[in-house]
Design brief:
mainly beta; 1 helix; five-stranded antiparallel sheet; 1% helix
């Protein structure tokens, strides 16, 4: 850290100059050291953990290092410092260290022996990473304390910001006690980009002894004439705490004579008080020995409480004494505020809503101005209203009184109100068909909702018992005088009452006609008899067998079957059937109407079946395709058709069957015809 040395150190330097100006100093006591340790500049390795490395600490005690884990090597303690060094006798210092030994005082690996377990020989470099200016100065000296009883320490300088380096002065070697060295050379004079560095070189044959190279209490001083009669000091500031971007008046007091065109410049250190890279915050062109420089604290300053300000002059070039007291710089924060509503989301007309805020960087006593539709409505931490309308916009303006802020005013987010009118729900139901219905007929009931919302809930009830939950309810089993209602629960957010009950629909039935048929069951001989069926109990009739009307029908079936009739009375219908059994004189014949010749063992053949094939005296079976061709014929009553024609299975379709049969007990020939469907 750059700073003015203590008086005791200044007295020690009197032997080198009668009048002396301290241009730069570093005692390695600060938290931010602007040096690059183990730099790869100037040919140094600086990166091999097995080699000697530059470190900064205040460890002086030695210890025992076990070579190969078993051979003890004693590392002595480093000699303590003289009183001229800040924070002596064991201040922080920059020194060589062999890290693998885990002993942090000045010890090292000797490149020419097995001292400290041997290791990698090399040139390790440590240097300043910023420039110092000696512009306007002559007789400039570089001063430092050092010890080095093992290998060799060397001093380097650069006048081009560290681009190239050159050695200067004598080697530092052969001393286990702290030694003050001063190097004065005109190459240091009047330089604007001067830097210094140190090399530890154990490629040179050394003693292998500790302590190795260590340095402390660096300074660059001027003992020449010309600038020694001029001084610049920064006077006390009006405050010790400032905000970034804020103005500050920097007073100064000077001695000596300043040439025309001289510029007094106020400079700001870094956050630790270091002026290695000062920032200009204001200038004043003047030759006056006192005055005030109007300055601005940089807006990009980082927060810190150890800043310093100093004033320098340009003609002659004088680096003045800083203000002598740490100052605090606070970064500028941005005030912010957000609001929220309770309840949030959609509300009903007349609902009381409370708006609350969350703020940052508002200060100790901020002002909160609530606005509705850009009009001021209230001041305070909260705002409550029950007079909100749909589309109202609520926001908040915060006026901060914090000390370091980028702006005093912050506007919150905007809440757009969604206010819904309060509505009354209702529901009614209708039935289809309406009025009285025939017993057993289905009835469908539908809802007609009002203000039910997007997804109302329904609960159908029959005589007070739950029967369904859909918007439509149907049934064909409702009893006479059954009472049907529906209960609706509205999904509308602002319904005045819910659930609501619909109107009632009372179910009334019309009885079906009571039908009777005569005869209901009868038996006849095929081809010999007629049967007249008569029905009663209705007003009109339709016979299903032939769609004929009337209450009677006369038939002569050749096979057993039902004869059914629909009777209608008062709009309701019922059906009744009479069954006629047809018997052959010599048994019963069955003529199939389909078969499946697909060789699956089920219904693979077409044949005529008789109850008693022995009754058959004559028989003829003919099968025709749709073009009238005979595709199968036989006089054998037990013959089977396998579904082939010309030795090929016929395609699926409908064929005509003609059967002629005579029985032993009669000379009559009976003819039957039927359609035969072939399916594979």
């Amino acid at each position: 850290m750059k700073k003015i040395f203590l008086l005791c150190f200044s007295i020690c330097l009197i032997q080198y100059a009668n009048t002396q100006t301290i241009i730069y100093s570093e005692d390695f006591e600060g938290t931010s050291i602007n040096w690059t340790l183990n730099s790869t500049a100037n040919g140094g390795m600086g990166i091999d953990a097995s080699s000697n490395q530059w470190v900064i600490n205040n460890v002086y005690n030695g210890g025992i290092y076990y070579f190969l884990g078993v051979i003890p090597i004693n590392v002595p303690s480093t000699n303590t410092q003289p009183v001229a060094i800040t924070n002596s006798p064991t201040s922080k210092y920059m020194h060589i260290n062999y890290g693998l030994s885990q002993i942090d005082n000045t010890n090292y690996v000797d490149g020419s022996s097995i001292s400290m377990a041997g290791g990698i020989a090399g040139i390790n470099f440590s240097c300043m990473n910023y420039d110092i200016s000696t512009t306007g100065y002559s007789n400039v000296s570089f001063n430092f304390y050092w010890i080095c009883d093992g290998a060799v320490g060397k001093v380097y300088y650069s006048t081009n910001s560290g681009t190239t380096w050159s050695p200067i002065g004598n080697d530092c070697a052969g001393s286990a006690t702290w030694t003050l060295t001063t190097i004065t050379n005109n190459v240091f004079d009047n330089q604007s980009t001067l830097r210094f560095g140190f090399v530890f070189d154990n490629t040179v044959a050394g003693t292998g002894n500790d302590p190795s190279f260590a340095i402390d209490q660096l300074s660059v001083t001027n003992s020449g004439s010309g600038n020694t009669n001029n001084t610049v000091a920064t006077d006390n500031l009006s405050d010790d705490s400032f905000c970034a971007c804020s103005p500050v008046n920097v007073p100064y007091t000077a001695t000596g004579t300043f040439a025309n065109g001289n510029i007094f410049t106020a400079e700001l250190s870094d956050a630790t008080g270091n002026f290695s890279s000062p920032i200009t915050i204001g200038t004043l062109t003047s030759t006056a020995l006192s005055g005030t420089i109007n300055c601005i604290i940089p807006c990009n300053s980082i927060a810190g409480n150890a800043y310093r300000i100093r004033v320098i002059s340009s003609n002659p070039a004088i680096i003045g004494i800083d203000n002598g007291v740490n100052i605090t710089i606070n970064t500028n924060e941005t005030p912010a505020v957000t609001i929220s509503a309770s309840p949030s989301g959609t509300i009903c007309t007349g609902t009381s809503v409370t708006f609350t805020l969350t703020s940052t960087n508002g200060g100790t006593n901020p002002i909160y101005q609530w606005q509705k539709n850009n009009m001021n409505v209230a001041i305070g931490n909260t705002y409550t209203s029950s007079l909100l309308e749909n589309g109202d916009e609520i926001n908040l303006i915060m006026i901060s009184n914090a000390s370091c802020i980028s702006t005093t005013e912050a506007t919150s987010n905007t809440i757009i109100m969604n206010v819904v009118d309060v509505l009354t729900p209702s529901v009614s139901i209708t039935s289809n068909p309406s009025g009285s219905v025939c017993i057993g007929s289905p009835i469908s009931f539908e809802t007609i909702p009002i203000n039910g919302g997007n997804s109302p809930q329904y609960l159908w009830q029959v005589n007070g018992i739950t029967a369904g939950t859909d918007s439509v309810f149907s049934s064909n089993s409702l009893a006479e005088n059954a009472i049907v209602t529906v209960q609706m629960t509205s999904s509308f957010a602002c319904a005045t009452s819910s659930p609501v009950i619909s109107n009632e629909i009372i179910v009334h039935h019309i009885p079906k006609p009571t039908l009777s048929i005569n005869p209901q069951n009868s038996t006849i001989t095929s081809g010999d008899e007629n049967v007249t069926l008569t029905v009663n109990g209705a007003d009109s009739y339709v016979w299903l067998n032939d769609n004929s009307n009337g209450n009677s029908i006369t038939v002569s079936p050749n096979q057993s079957q039902n004869y059914c009739v629909i009777g209608e009375k008062n709009g309701c219908t019922d059906t009744i059937c009479g069954f006629i059994t047809v018997e052959d004189k010599c048994g019963h014949i069955t003529i199939p109407n389909s078969f499946t010749p697909n060789s699956d063992g089920i219904n693979d053949f077409y044949l005529i079946a008789f109850d008693s094939i022995g009754c058959v005296s004559e028989f003829e079976l003919l099968l025709f395709n749709r073009w009238g061709e005979v595709i199968f014929e036989s006089n054998d009553p037990s013959a089977k058709w396998d579904g082939t024609y010309n030795n090929k299975i016929v395609t699926d379709g409908v064929f005509m069957c003609l059967v002629k049969v005579s029985y032993n007990d009669s000379a009559m020939v009976y003819e039957y015809s039927n359609h035969v469907t072939v399916l594979k």
